[in-house]
Amino acid sequence: MRQILYFVAILIFTSCGESKPKTSAMDLLKYGMPISVSAPEGSIVESDDLGVMKDVSIKSGDDYFVQIFSGIATERDPKIVIAKLKEETKSDPYFSKIIQEDESGFIYEKKIDEEVDYDFRFVKVQGDTEFIFQTGLFGTFSEDQVRNMYNSVQ
Predict the structure, then answer these.
(1) Does residue 70 contact residue 130 with C-beta atoms inside 8 Å?
(2) pTM of the predicted model as reported, rounded to 2 decimal places
């Protein structure tokens, strides 16, 4: 009997967790970017051609908001672009610390007064085009939300 109660308790705890929205590959070619990302189904995409660069935003609820800028590559080596972005990010007065980094990008923490927020930068260089991914400009995101966004653009 006791084993059955443990099994039922475990079943209840594991089934009550938050379910993640279903994601699928989203081709951004029709928005002027020959790349794809894994985004929650039903995401809203907005694009803007700023002349020298394109701006595509993908949003789904309050948990997913990725903004992508593309333009002529300033460098062919993504590591150099990442180093410049890291330097720029660290100069922000609200920058707190980098919490994850790899060859293509990084996730970092910002502190505004006592509020903690997270953001990321991820770079792809494809031919002569540079793509810079980050969280959308509006919103506050948890570390888990940003990790999910970061993983979705790789």
Answers:
(1) yes
(2) 0.84
The tokens for 39 are 């985004």
Structure-token pair, residue 55:
């701006």
Are 132 and 123 contacting, i.e. CB atoms less than 8 angstroms apart? yes
Residue 5 is predicted with a pLDDT of 36
Of residues 42 and 6, more confidence is placed in 42
Q: Which domains does the chain have, with CATH numbers?
A: 21-152 (3.40.1000.10)
Could you read off the pLDDT of 13-38 as tens digits, one per residue?
444 444 555 888 999 999 999 999 99
**Which residue type, as a one-letter code, is found at position 77?**
D
Contact (Cβ atoms closer than 8 angstroms) between residue 25 and residue 153:
no
Phi and psi torsions of 114, nearest 5°: -105, -5
Rg for the chain, CA atoms, rounded: 19
Q: What is the 3-state secondary structure (H, E, C) of the chain?
A: CHHHHHHHHHHHHHHCCCCCCCEEEEECHHHCCCCEEEEECCCEEEEEECCCEEEEEEEECCCEEEEEEEEECCCCCHHHHHHHHHHHHHCCCCEEEEEEEECCEEEEEEEECCEEEEEEEEEEEECCEEEEEEECCCCCCCHHHHHHHHHHCC
